[in-house]
Amino acid sequence: ETGVTQTPRHLVMGMTNKKSLKCEQHLGHNAMYWYKQSAKKPLELMFVYSLEERVENNSVPSRFSPECPNSSHLFLHLHTLQPEDSALYLCASSQDTGTAHYEQYFGPGTRLTVT
Amino acid sequence: KQEVTQIPAALSVPEGENLVLNCSFTDSAIYNLQWFRQDPGKGLTSLLLIQSSQREQTSGRLNASLDKSSGRSTLYIAASQPGDSATYLCAVTPAAGNKLTFGGGTRVLVKP
Known about the structure:
heterodimer; B: six-stranded mixed beta sheet; 11 strands
């Protein structure tokens, strides 16, 4: 596999379920990101990890819990979601974060539907 | 707080016509600006990246200009094809940090 992969590609879950989204990057990058793309809203940054440490949490509700066990893997644990959380969740990676620009590479996304 | 706006939200053109997509941003203190393509339900593909010191970038039929002082960028796609149908997003990186701020996108339909 090359680039940034995400699984599952589609997920339907009830409001009481617990599920996890997985992202894996095969680019040797140190930084990983979660974005949310809702209908009719711009892409929103949710979390940023650099070298497995969370460096940004963009006021995301606690029902979304990220985990970065190593620099190649990023998870988004979901519990007690609301229907308005239905969206496309995109993962991205870059060489690093910080003042110098590093291009971000995006995965294909997970389409989440909360019923 | 940086805000990025893309107008129009949707655009439909006949095949062969040139496409002009606009992006504006409120804070001119940017490091660079990127244009992305997104096919329905898919991730983002980077098309062009313009550094803040540059005025334009070209790749094949694509040309992106940047006027940092006025907070504007334009993506030109020459001789459009049905395969160009997609949503085009612009995003800016601030002068400090790596946090992209995205516009809402322009959905393009090129009719054969």
